[in-house]
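Message: A physicist's question: would you kindly supply an amino acid chain plus fold tokens?
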Amino acid sequence: MQIQKLDRRKTPFFSQFGNDFLYAPEKIEALKVPVYSSQKVAAQCSEKKKEFSTTQRQRIQNYFQSRYQGIANEAQQVNITALSDENCFTVTTGHQLNLLGGTLFSLYKILHVIRLSEELNKNHPDCHFVPVFWMASEDHDFEEINELHLFRKTLKWNTAQSGPVGRFKTENWKEFIDEVRSFFQNHPDSEIHALLDLYEDGRNLGEVSWKLINDLFSRYGLLVLDADHQELKHSFSGIMKREIEERFCEQAVLKSNEKIEAAGYKTQVFVRPINLFWMGPQKRERIVPISTHEFESTGGKVFSKTELLNILEEHPENISPNALLRPIYQETILPNIAYIGGTGELAYWMQLPQVFEELGMTMPLLAVRQSIQLIDENSSKKMDKLDLSLEDFMLPSEELKQLYLGRLNLQEADLSGLKIGFEELKKELLNTVLKEAPQLDKYAQSEVTKLDKQLEGIEQKLNKANRQQYDQSIAQLLDLQSRLFPNKGLQERYDHFLNYTPTGNFREFIHTLYQLSDPDEKNLIISDLSSVS
């Protein structure tokens, strides 16, 4: 396949913060944020090894053994078994529970940790590295995840449920599944149907999402973790108790925020006095202190401090960390040395150095996820025909139009030279009539007027044809730009992977993405799929 690399800074799609993370990491490291580099891995493993206990290892191994009982393939079982070893470490990414796995970039994140783990296993044979996907099943922003864009149609799952999305029962689910399946009805033996059968068979969104991600990436040894789990929450309950009793997170984050803003960056997450949620039936409500010993959820439920601490002791699954404490939860239960995320995620990790310091924990190395731009075969042919590059299509639409029209050299029909000659011909004709047959003068004048109108009509039709050519060309141009950069952004934030598998046989495409993935690549990876054999 044809692969190109484009410096992210030469595109309009990436933030200054993200570009600094990749191209000027010293600016980020000045804020005590550990930016990933291969040279730091050995030291990071040494630190994690010292602070991650045998008990913690046994707990996470037990979780995966239970979750994968009877279904783990050989690669996954090797990874689960290795977790008990003090020289085993995880490389993690996470994402919301988008429908059918979400847009392309969620896949790119997962493939990034898979390829990075493979690279680390090769370069550090004395250690073992396991790729992990963290399901953000406790998020409650359903409006952010309730649709997908498939073959230029927007599909939605409509439900009135609320609270943590992983607990949403898959009610009204069949209608959504059937709509997805309808795109592949002419391919009854396609791989997509078995996947949809699997995806349809589940009690809640968390369960079906786990099945989907596992099905897509199990061959690469990926382990999928749903942290909305009682035993895992027990291991984090001590830190959540400390948050309720001491409110340590707010002051620590505020110290980091001052440094972030002084460096010219924006803070991503608003820190709260208590950075925890209470989760009840279809509820995930922020916990707000109203006195020293009394708290209230944003839904109006009142708790004494004793009640909250008892919940953490007996039912910790009913308390949920927010975006600022979720990374602490992750680092408590996983022997993690690196986290791979988008710039939005890494922006809130950047607010946490003081929190990790307060807790005596080592921050993981942080890396910006890879970014890939795909050019499908149809788009590739059109780009060649138009003689325009991908960078041209990154221009604002008006600039792209002007660039293209300049190359077309479209002009209004110009019959001025013909009109001058015609005027001379009319004069000669009328003079001849006056001289030879004056009684035909009015008739001749009438006929000449008709000729004027016919010439004008020809000119109008020529200009109309030119305008139609112009309109059609511009419409095709802008349609292609929209296909390459939907909503004027990267396709990876809009397109679902099934858009690139019209027959529904997606496994070969997933492996193509695997081959494209490069955890060491800072630049935008561009792949012309028309060259894929």
User: Anything to note?
Assistant: The first helix runs from residue 16 to 23.
